[in-house]
Amino acid sequence: MADTTLSESTKTKIIPGNYLLSFILVTFLFALWGFANDITNPMVAAFKNILLISNFESSLVQFAFYGGYCVMAIPAALFIKRFTYKSGILLGLTLYATGCLLFIPSGIIMQFWAFLLSYFILTCGLSFLETSANPYILAMGSEETSTRRLNFAQSFNPMGSIMGMFVAGQLILANLDKTDEAGRRVLRETAAEKFAEIQQHDLGVIIGPYTVLGLVVLVALIIFAIAKLPKTKGEDDNKLNIGATFGRLFHNAKYLEGVVAQAFYVGAQIMCWTFIIQYGVNELGMEKATAQSYNIIAMIIFVSSRFICTFLLKFFSPGGLLMNLAIGGFLLVGGTIFIKGMVGLYCLMGVSACMSLMFPTIYGIALKGLGDDAKLGAAGLIMAIGGGCLMPPMQAAIMDMNAFNLGFMTLSSVRVSFVLPLICFVVIAIFGFRTSNVHGHTN
After folding, report:
1. pTM (2 d.p.)
2. Using an 8 Å Cβ cutoff, are 136 and 153 in contact?
3. Whole domain around residue 383: which residue ranges?
């Protein structure tokens, strides 16, 4: 029994020895879904140009992608509660690989709905992975070090994100046909065959990396199927007890506020990273691939800040640090809105430094002290990723509007649209404040 549950002698270790191999394997998953997230964000701009659709229509990529998280979170949690974390990981990898490989028939029929369906299935898999991996990491040791442990594991998520951004920028966006949107519209009316040829080429450029990703995920599936992952304390209890568990969760103010804060955080993250390309293209006249390179720099800032902030958690409370970072994010987004030119872009990139700590910290604060209820509690926090499904289309709809005259100055619709992440950081700052000052005894 000593090798399958937490022993007294390991309570002070961030990662107990009996969980080390499992921790390494599961941490790899954080990079794997980070890659999927950030190879997908730039596809909003890509599909807009390839299919000649509006900003709002192209943002449905994010609606389908993050919708999978929202729809599948509770079923995933129930599945994991009934079976094991390993079972959830295996099913998640299966759905992930299936969604990636469905890009092949989607490209053959050249229908946008087919790509959206592929994204949805892919992220149903990611929902299983995140619902399994996050609470599993939290349970791999003492509760007092759980937030630090999850922050450390989450530090490898942006490494996958950087790879996804690089592939999106250098292997996809840079290799798309250079005909701009206006030129494509002319071709569609005057040379339909040429237009279809360009479309087929561009969709083929997109399909290739997703196909390779699907094959990589299949290899990961085989590795996890073979690996022996130790069970954590309480994992043998597979009784659902749904009513009692949800009753306790709905009466836990800290948990509910954490779900709300997480929804606004994910919305802010996806909006800032998805539309940095539109900001660079529309405000600064950049090529899409060039704008994506600034997104990669923003992610490098994110990674660096994640390690720094994880270290700072040794000296500052999670809630207090979260509040201050949210205030910083608010100020930088304000700079993106009101300051023209490259300075505005630099502000948008700097937001990543403030966002680096937020997801795992909110997650850890919300689940701390829940015990076995954390399995279903995790579902609410994964459902909160649905914030990334609703808010980007709202921002895109603002981008499709005309410029805004404020009386003292005129702002482009692209810049005004960033008022949505501005609001998100206000909500996160309030949660951080309440965590330190109202829920301080459970922080």
Report:
1. 0.73
2. no
3. 16-230+240-442
